[in-house]
Design goal:
eleven-stranded mixed β-sheet, six-stranded antiparallel β-sheet
Length: about 550
């Protein structure tokens, strides 16, 4: 059933509306909302194994910056990817939904790259509504490769985008072009893209410092092919094959990029007000000659990329900020927890019906409501579920050695984190319980529309505020500013699932120079919340619409 809608009535300036409607003189609600907002930097490595960096036991590959970051920060030992493959894992990361509910549940695998939709709220959107500058610099990973479509980063909450739009294009380390927002930027084919992306990330931090910002930096390192300037570098004399030496050099170069970003944060004077999260997107790859056993890339775990054993989905996750108390966290968390965690930190209502849980409490030492279970779904191939210390994997018929009836494996991770002893036959009731829970958790997207939307139709701006959270929004007021100002007359209350719609006349408008800035202010969970959205419609007058 569609959510209830309430129609808002506007009060305008300049005597353009009926008598008794007052002009708005509202102070900036975003500035009033938070005096010391935090910045967030999210670094996502591509196909980096749990054990490929020093904080998780690596001894052959040098990662001094990540070693220092972990020693000064919070290291998670039981962090999980959204999937064992790139695209669905990133969809989970961005949207807060596991692969039983998310829009993108598998990689292209010979077909077109799946796209995000207009219904996909990413972790950038609540922060952008709260006044954050937002940027995605690196590998987006969702098609189509064209501007002006709903799956583009600019349409999914990121003010600035520079990098690769699609999954396949991101396999090119020396590309002939990258994308800057909606435009292709020609390159000479001799520029090493990870270094260029690093430079762009550092530049954004320097430019954005002083106002709250979110930087999402999904690098392409150390994905195959094993390509890096200068060959193998410090690993040139190691008794490994060329691909393995270059893979080690890729990981060390990734580490140097992390160091560059931390240095930029410190030099900008914003270290105490910035939280940096470093994570992998899935387990280690074994492609184009790379042998993960040389580096013990999956640590003590079984499996690699594409598999749902722990080695395919257990990932490094490190949080760093001088404001955090260094420690090790063993509680399970997942990439789909990021959206609610960022919303929680930014003090905006957490969207309802997400699979993720905020782990802010694990970072600050506060309360933490963990997961009842974690779930992974590779359609037509395999699914996995972890509840407490029990982990079950179900293989589809004729997949990974399963016969025509498929196969179920059950592991007790307390004493068998390497998943070597299948105890499914000894625990039939538990297998039935986990199977039923798994099946009931795979289905349609359960989310509600969320946020502040402005669309332009036939000379009008239609403004809709959606309460897609689980809490009631009270004292709701809309405020508009352009060449004229206006605000809603009175205040409103929106229950979860309800929306408030107002229509602003754009008579005589011309696109471009004078945007219509819409602000919504309300209280939720005892806090004042302010959203803002911009439309480049340049209104000359504002009037009531129904």
């Amino acid at each position: 059933m569609p959510p209830a809608t309430r129609r808002g009535f506007l009060a305008g300036a300049g005597g353009l509306l009926a008598a008794g409607l007052a002009a708005a003189s509202m102070a900036d609600p975003v500035a009033a909302q938070r005096r010391t907002p935090l910045n967030f930097v999210i670094i996502l490595a591509d196909d980096l194994g749990w054990g490929e960096i020093g904080p998780y036991g690596q001894r052959k590959i040098a990662t001094p910056n990540l070693d220092r970051m972990a020693a000064q920060g919070i290291r998670f030992t039981s962090a999980y990817a959204g999937a064992s493959l790139c695209a669905p894992s990133r969809c989970a990361l961005l949207t807060g939904l596991h692969t039983g509910h998310g829009t993108v549940r598998e990689n292209p695998e010979g077909g077109p790259q799946r796209s995000l939709t207009a219904a996909d709220l990413t972790f950038a959107e609540p922060l952008k509504l709260a006044g954050y500058q937002t940027a995605c610099i690196g590998k987006w990973g969702f098609g189509p490769e064209e501007p002006g479509q709903v799956s583009h980063p600019n349409a999914r909450g990121f003010d600035e985008f520079f990098g690769y739009i699609t999954h396949r294009h991101a396999h090119q380390y020396w590309p002939t072009y990258l994308w800057h927002n909606g435009e292709k930027v020609a390159l000479d084919g001799k520029t090493y893209a990870p270094d260029l992306l690093r430079d762009r990330a550092v530049s954004f931090i320097k430019r954005a410092a002083g106002d709250p910002f979110l930087l999402y930096f999904p690098t392409i390192l150390p994905h195959s092919p094993s390509q890096v300037p200068g060959g193998s570098g410090r690993y040139a004399d190691e008794p490994w094959t060329g691909p393995n030496r270059r893979h080690a050099a890729q990981v060390t170069r990734l580490d140097s990029h992390v160091g560059d970003i931390i240095r930029a944060i410190r030099e900008a004077g914003i270290a105490n007000s910035t939280v940096l999260l470093f994570a992998g997107d899935n387990g280690p790859h074994h492609e184009k000659g790379v042998d993960p056993t040389i580096f013990d890339s999956n640590g003590p775990f079984r499996g690699v990329k594409r598999q749902l054993y722990e080695g395919g989905i257990r990932i490094p996750l490190i949080a760093w900020s001088p404001s955090l108390t260094p420690r090790v966290v063993d509680e399970p968390v997942a990439l789909w927890d990021l959206l609610p965690t960022l919303a929680d930190y930014a003090q905006v209502p957490i969207p309802a019906n997400l699979d993720g849980r905020s782990f802010r409490g694990l970072l600050t030492g506060g309360r933490y409501a963990g997961h009842e279970y974690l779930l992974w779904n590779r359609p037509r191939k395999m699914q996995a579920i972890r509840r407490g210390h029990w982990k079950m994997i179900r293989f589809a018929p004729n997949i990974s050695g399963a016969g025509p009836a498929g196969r179920v494996e059950l592991y007790d991770l307390r004493g068998d984190r390497g998943e070597r002893h299948n105890v499914a036959a000894r625990n039939p009731q538990l297998v039935t319980e986990l199977t039923n829970l798994l099946d009931s958790s795979i289905g349609d997207d359960p989310r509600l529309p969320y946020g502040l939307r402005v669309t332009e139709e036939q000379g009008q701006a239609v403004v809709t505020l959606h309460n897609g959270s689980a809490t009631t929004w009270r004292n709701v007021r809309l405020n508009f500013s352009g060449r004229q100002r206006a605000r809603s007359e009175g205040t409103y209350t929106l229950a979860p699932g309800e929306s408030l719609t107002a229509t602003v006349s754009l008579s005589g408008a011309a696109a471009g120079n004078d945007p219509l800035l819409t602000r919504a202010r309300f209280t939720a969970n005892g806090r004042t919340v302010a959203f803002q959205a911009k439309s480049w419609a340049a209104p000359q007058r504002v009037s009531v619409g129904h």
